[in-house]
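Q: What residues go here?
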């Protein structure tokens, strides 16, 4: 038994009456002067902070990243500086569309957000368990997310909204097929891969830059629920993934992922048949093979969920020297929007919350604001330049110029193959990656999900989406049409796509 402690108010005043409010006589009424009642109630009333608008339900753990292979020819980032180097990290998994109390086994992508506490600042790699995403322009993001949330009238999830949006945005097809495969319902968080998803860049000590994709391969292997199991688990244990992660770490069964990268040179990017910065597409691993980098192990459960997991804040903008952005429009859109969300949810000083705080030196002139609790840099000058302190911007961190080659810069207007080809990669995925078993489940999951489409636009939405599946693969389109009981001959001619579809 630990040493006995006195009960106190938040201001440290010891008190006795914890369960009985001061009252005028034994039966009341209550006295206004019992401020402890008000303190308890008022604090309780303020316990909830704004829920993340996406990725609200999450689980996280601390761990260690260890370099196993030398990639210094690509990057000078300190965390990769030598084989054997260890860096503390924090990884938060999540579902995307559901609220904070929603079930862990919902069909949904999974967030895979990592904070590496490097000596040159915190590097946040904020990705998913898929290498791609539903859209490639951030202006569509809020519209897309609305379709994954609740219908404004019924306040229920709406397959009609989801498929309406997807069918009107064919670039979503690739990710829709990942989502509808059994990888859309992973068996907890330990048995799935993670991806940085966006294209980033690496810069070495000669200032040479390459484009890069980050892959985290689960050492536990892939394991998924089939649809019926996932649905059943929603009722049996809506916190399945949270419990699975905490228990595994608690029992010393530390989950691990192998970090691998794909590298593309600037020249290769100019000539690649797809836009290498398009988040709805992958880089073929046959042409850009995975390169081993290191191993990440989760080995410590957070002690307090709210303090460490709910208040964790990741921002793709937070890259460290040796790692940089790419023109990926979705990445560019996220650079400003993530810190904006954190300032709204946690306040301007969110980076001082211990889980978010860089454990190394922070020297700047940002001051004040709500909940500034770290001493606010004391009596040090709060402006730059000044004649008093010794804080200097180091030229070694000077940014590199970005080449605005037309092949990179004109993607906005490009309508040719590679940019608006939304079907080649989903077709390859279906034909060459999925096993017969995976294909069968994919079709049955899609048929199940599309069967929820309802209302006066039902046929229009179903036919439009079917058209996309046909364009990816005729066999896939036929199987889904059959499952839905759609007469293909009648349904096909009136599509919104300009190109006619022959079946
Ligand atoms: P490869 O055959 O070299 O790679 C196929 C990739 O698919 C591997 O990363 C494999 O890794 C992954 N995979 C296998 N089964 C599934 C599944 N059921 N769901 C999702 N991913 C799976 O081919 P390419 O690189 O040329 O890519 C072909 C297609 O594979 C792409 O069009 C894309 O649809 C898909 N894919 C590509 C990835 C990439 O980064 N290139 C990554 C993931 C998928 P593993 O079995 O370890 O998951």
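A:
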């Amino acid at each position: 038994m630990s040493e006995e402690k006195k009960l106190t108010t938040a201001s440290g005043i010891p008190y006795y009456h914890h369960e009985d409010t001061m009252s005028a006589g034994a039966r009341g009424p209550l006295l206004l002067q019992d401020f402890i009642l008000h303190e308890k109630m008022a604090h309780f009333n303020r316990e909830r902070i704004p829920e993340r608008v996406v990725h609200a339900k999450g689980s996280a753990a601390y761990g260690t990243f260890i370099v196993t292979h030398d990639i210094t020819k690509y990057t000078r980032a300190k965390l990769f500086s030598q084989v054997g180097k260890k860096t503390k990290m924090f990884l938060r998994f999540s579902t995307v569309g559901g609220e904070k109390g929603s079930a862990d086994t919902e069909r949904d992508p999974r967030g895979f957000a990592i904070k590496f506490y490097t000596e040159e600042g915190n590097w946040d790699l904020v990705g998913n368990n898929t290498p791609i995403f539903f859209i490639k322009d951030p202006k569509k993001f809020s519209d897309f997310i609305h379709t994954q949330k609740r219908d404004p009238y019924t306040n229920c999830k709406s397959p009609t909204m989801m498929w309406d949006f997807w069918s009107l945005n064919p670039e979503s097809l690739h990710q829709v097929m990942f989502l509808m495969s059994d990888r859309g319902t992973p068996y907890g968080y330990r048995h799935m891969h993670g991806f940085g998803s966006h294209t980033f860049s690496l810069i070495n000590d000669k200032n040479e830059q390459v484009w890069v994709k980050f892959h985290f391969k689960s050492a536990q292997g892939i394991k998924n629920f089939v649809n019926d199991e996932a649905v059943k688990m929603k009722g049996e244990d809506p916190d399945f993934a949270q419990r699975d992660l905490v228990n595994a770490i608690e029992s010393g069964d530390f989950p691990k992922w192998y970090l691998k990268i794909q590298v593309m040179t600037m020249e290769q990017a100019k000539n690649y048949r797809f836009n290498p910065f398009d988040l709805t597409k992958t880089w073929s691993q046959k042409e850009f093979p995975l390169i081993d980098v290191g191993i990440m192990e989760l080995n410590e459960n957070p002690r307090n969920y709210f303090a460490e997991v709910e208040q964790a804040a990741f921002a793709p903008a937070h890259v460290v020297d040796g790692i940089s952005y790419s023109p990926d429009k979705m990445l560019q859109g996220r650079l400003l929007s993530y810190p904006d969300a954190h300032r709204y949810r946690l306040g301007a000083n969110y980076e001082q919350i211990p889980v978010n705080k860089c454990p190394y030196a922070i020297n700047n002139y940002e001051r004040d604001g709500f909940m500034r609790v770290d001493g606010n840099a004391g009596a040090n000058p709060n402006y730059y330049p000044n004649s008093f302190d010794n804080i200097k911007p180091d030229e070694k961190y000077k940014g590199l110029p970005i080449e605005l080659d037309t092949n990179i810069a004109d993607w906005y207007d490009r309508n040719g193959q590679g940019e608006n080809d939304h079907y080649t990669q989903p077709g390859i995925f279906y034909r060459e990656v999925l096993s017969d078993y995976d294909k069968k489940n994919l079709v049955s999951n899609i048929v199940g999900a599309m069967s929820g489409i309802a209302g006066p636009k039902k046929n229009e939405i179903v036919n439009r989406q079917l058209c996309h599946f046909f364009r990816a693969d005729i066999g896939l389109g036929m199987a889904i049409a059959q499952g839905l009981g759609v007469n293909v001959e009648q349904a096909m001619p009136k599509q919104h796509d300009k190109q006619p579809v022959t079946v």
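A: Context that may help when evaluating the design: Residues 329-346 form the longest helix (18 residues). The beta strands are 58-67, 86-95, 110-118, 121-128, 194-195, 200-203, 209-218, 256-264, 291-300, 323-324.
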